Batch of 2 targets.
Target 1
Amino acid sequence: MNRRSFFQTSGLATVLSQLASNASAEAPLKAVHDGPVIRIGNIGCGGRGNFVSAIIAENPGFKITAAHDYFADSAATFGGKYGIAADQQFTGLDGYKKMLEQVDAVAIHSPPYFHVQQAIDAVAAGKHVLIAKPMAIDVKGCETIRQLAKDAAAKGIVVLADVQSRGNEHFQEGIKRIHDGALGDLMFGECHYEADLIPRNDDDSNPEGRLKNWVRHRDLGGDIITEQNIHALDIVSWAFGRPVRASGNCGRGARPDNIGDASDHFSLLFEFEKGAVTFSSRQFNGWGSPFACGNRFVGNKGIFTSEFGGRVMIRGDKESFWRGGDTKNLYRTGTEKNIETFRVAITSKNPNGNPTVEGAVESTLLTLFGEFAAKTPGGATWEEFMSKSQSANPDLSGLKA
C-alpha cells in the first residue's frame, strides 16, 4: 500500500533519516551467491517497500520481478525503478494474489492490517515470505502468523520477520548475556521512543484518502505503539519476556489535526514476575528534540543500555562488563542481514522452524498489551488482555478489489 507520500513529507522522512543515519557512509554487505536466483515480488510500493527493495536488489540471490500496490501510480513508479514489466505490476486490494503466480517469494510491506491475509495466501501458494513489522495488529492475527510460520516450516517454506535489532550481532550478544545472568536479577528498566509527527497524506474524506492515511487509523496500521514504538519495545520483550500486568495512559494531546484515531503519546508501566519497565513515547513535534529509541535495564550485577542506531553495552564489574558495539547503521544493516538470512534459508531448503517469527510475534503482542492496558481504566493483566482484546475490522467498502 502507498507509503510514498508519507516519506516525502518532513515527519516520517525525519524518522527514517534518523534511523538510517550514516547509511550511505558504509558500503552495503556483499552477499555471496552461486545458486539459482530467487524471483521475488514486493507487496506495498511505498517508503518502506522501496527501502527494503533497494537492499534486495543488491543481493545477487534475488531478482525483483513483480510488484503490487493498491495504487496504480505507486506500482508503476516502483516498476519503473526496478525494471518490472507492466504486466507484472498489480493493483487493487487483491492484485497480489495474481502476483503470487509469478514469483518464488514475496516481501510484505503493506499497511499492517493486511499482513496476515497476505502471508496466509502466499504460504498457501507455496511462496516464501519476508514480512515487515508489526506481524499483525490484533491478538488473533499474531497467533495466526505464529502458527502459519510453524506450518510453513513443516512444508519447507521460509517465513522470516524483518526486525532490524534481532539481526544485529551486538543486540544478539547483549541479550544473550542478560539471559545468561550478566545483570543478575533484573530489577527495573526504562524504554523510550520519541519521533516527530507523521503528517497526513490526503484529506481523508474518501476511502482511498483514508487508505493513504493508514498510519493515522488504528484499524489499518495499529496504534502508534505497535506500528512505530515496537522498535524499542522489541528489546524489552526480548530481554524480559511477557509481563504479568501493565497500566498507564495514552492520548492525542499535541497533534495539530483530527485525522484518524491513532494516539500521539503513551506512558506505561509493565510489571514482570521480576522487575518492571517504564515506557514512554511521543509521536508529534518535539521542537527540535532528537529522535530517540532506546532502553536501559538495571539488575543487581550490571546495567544494560542500548540505542537503536547507537551504542549497545553492559556496565558492571569485571564479570559483567561488556563493551558491546555501535549500531549506528542498524536500519540498513539489520535488514541486509535479514534478507541474506532469508536467501540462505530458501536456497538451503531449510527453514529451521522459521525462528524469527516467534520473537516478532511476542514483541507485537507486548505492544498490543500496552495499548490495551493504556485504554483500560486501572490497567490490565496479561490474561485479561488475551481474553478481552478485540480484532481489527476496518471498513474497506469503496475500495477496488
Target 2
Amino acid sequence: MFYRFIRKLLSIYDSLGSELACYWLRSAGARLGKDVMCYGIPVLSVRKGSKIIIGDFTTLRSISRGNAIGVNHRIVLTTHSSEAFIEIGNHVGMSGGAICCKSHVKIGDNTLLGANTIIADNDMHPIKPENRRYNCADVDIPAKPVYIGNNVWIGADVFICKGVSIGDNSVIGAKSLVSKSIPANCIAAGNPAKVIKKDLSQYSRS
C-alpha cells in the first residue's frame, strides 16, 4: 500500500515536472505539438535563429525512472548555428540522449531512441589544433544533415554521425557507431555499423 501511495505521488510530481519542462522548451523557442511529455528537465543550448520542433505525443525522458536500464544524463538539445533545425516527429520516445545540430537533424514518426543515444550532424570541434580547444560555432566545422526514418528503433548507447540516413523500420543494435547510411527494413549493428539482417518488411506497419 505504501508503494502504491509513493507511486501516486511520483505520478503527480512527473505531471507537474512535465509542464515545467515544456515551458522551459518553449521559452527557448522550441515548438511543441500536443501532449508532449517530459520526465525531468532537458539541458538546452540553443543558438538564436535556430529551430526545434517536437511532434505530438512525443516523450522526452531525462530521468532513469521508467526506463529499464536507466539513463546516464538528462536529454541534451544543442544547436550550433542560426540555421540549425532539430525536427522530432510524432510519437517519438527519447531517453537521456543528446542531439547536437549545426545543420539539420530529422527524426521520423514512431521512432524510439534508446537510452543515451547521441546524434551529431557535425564534428563539434575543428580539425585545426589551434582552434580545437576554444572552438565556437562560427569556425569552419563540417556538418551534414542526419535523417532517421519512421518506425526506427535505435538501441542504447548508439552514436550516429553526420551525413547518416537510416531508412524506415530499421533497427540499430546497442552500442553501435553509425558512420554510414543504413537502408530501410533491416537490422544493423557494430562499430562501424553494418547490415546483419535484411528484409524486415514483414514486420512493418501498413
